[in-house]
Amino acid sequence: MEKVLELEKVSVQFGGLIALDKVDMDVRRGEILSIIGPNGAGKTTLFNLLTGIYQPTSGKIIYKNRVINKLQPYKRVNLGIARTFQNTRLLKNMTVLENVLVAHSQCNGEGLLESVFSFGSVNRKRVAIVQECIEKLEVVGLAHKLDVFAGSLPYGEQRLLEIARALATGCEILLLDEPAAGMNSSEKVELIKKIRQLSNEFNIEIVLIEHDIGMIMDISDRIIVLNYGVKIAEGGAKEIQNDPNVISAYLGGEVDWD
Questions:
Q1: What distance in Å separates the CA atoms of residue 4 and residue 65, rounded to the nearest whole number?
Q2: CA 228-178-65 angle, 5° bins
Q3: Do residues 152 and 218 share a domain?
Q4: Does one domain contain both 236 and 121?
Q5: CATH code at 122?
Q6: Residue 149 DSSP class
């Protein structure tokens, strides 16, 4: 299977603390890849590394055969890597639609002269951008709340709005940092359906951090396990469930994977 994104012996060190230690991993075309591990394992550090918030102390990050170690976050978004956050980062005094519009790559590219002398074409472009953003909201089930302020949405819907905003960037790889946090069981079932839809219908590679182990085992094509910044296991759900290193890392004994 084609490798879209690769990490080769990547380490991240903050002073004397090694947050990631010589991690090898890849994201493959068309898959849902989950990153799990106990608190402090290095999962969010990994996401910050992939999106350019951190740079590796050593090793290589390769995206579509290009080393992107020093590429700034906004340039990585332009290349097709987008994310959501563990704690929502919405513009809560703006509407649902406005939150998605600000992420669209063409929303802020309009020049003064273009606006004055090419109003007809500019207006058609604006309409097309709005329609694209509405389509992204339809995917996550929020198209009926375009004019609702983001801050007034229930927490579960705020997380869905973050996904729609990431989709508006035109991403090819979507990093979801605990997307099910704050959701009840029925909301999680719907979230799983939406993530699968993004993977299957929109050809978006999904990389997922999530503490709901039952959800991880249900949705993942492949799972990578981190512990203290080290990759200790990789494989399918059954392999991970039976891996003694994984069981030891979580509880030091048997784990309830349901």
A1: 8
A2: 70
A3: no
A4: no
A5: 3.40.50.300
A6: B
Q: Are residues 59 and 178 in the same domain?
A: yes
Residue 216, in any domain of the structure: yes
How many Cα atoms are found within 13 Å in the side-chain-facing hemisphere of 121?
8
The per-residue pLDDT string of the chain (258 residues; one tens digit each, 9 = 90 and over) reads 799 999 999 999 998 899 999 999 999 999 999 999 988 899 999 999 999 999 999 999 999 999 999 999 999 999 999 999 888 889 999 999 999 999 997 766 655 455 444 556 667 778 889 999 999 999 999 999 999 999 999 988 999 999 999 999 999 999 999 999 888 888 899 999 999 999 988 889 999 999 888 999 999 999 999 999 999 999 999 999 989 889 888 755 445 555
Assess if residue 199 is contained within a domain: no
Q: Which secondary structure element, helix H or strand E, spans residue 20, and what is its range? A: strand 17-28
Shared domain check, 75 and 13: yes
The answer as to whether 234 is a domain residue is yes
- Sequence-distant (6+) residues with CB within 8 A of 131 are none
Other Cβ atoms less than 10 A from the Cβ of 243: the count is: 17
Contact between 34 and 222 under an 8 Å Cβ cutoff? The reply is yes
Residue (of 50, 4, 18) closest to 176 by Cα position: 50
In a domain, 189, yes or no: no
pTM above 0.90, yes or no: no
Please answer whether residues 169 and 103 qualify as being in contact, where contact means their C-beta atoms are separated by less than 8 angstroms: yes
Domain range for 146 is 87-170
- SS3 breakdown of the chain: % helix, strand, coil, rounded to 5? 40, 25, 35
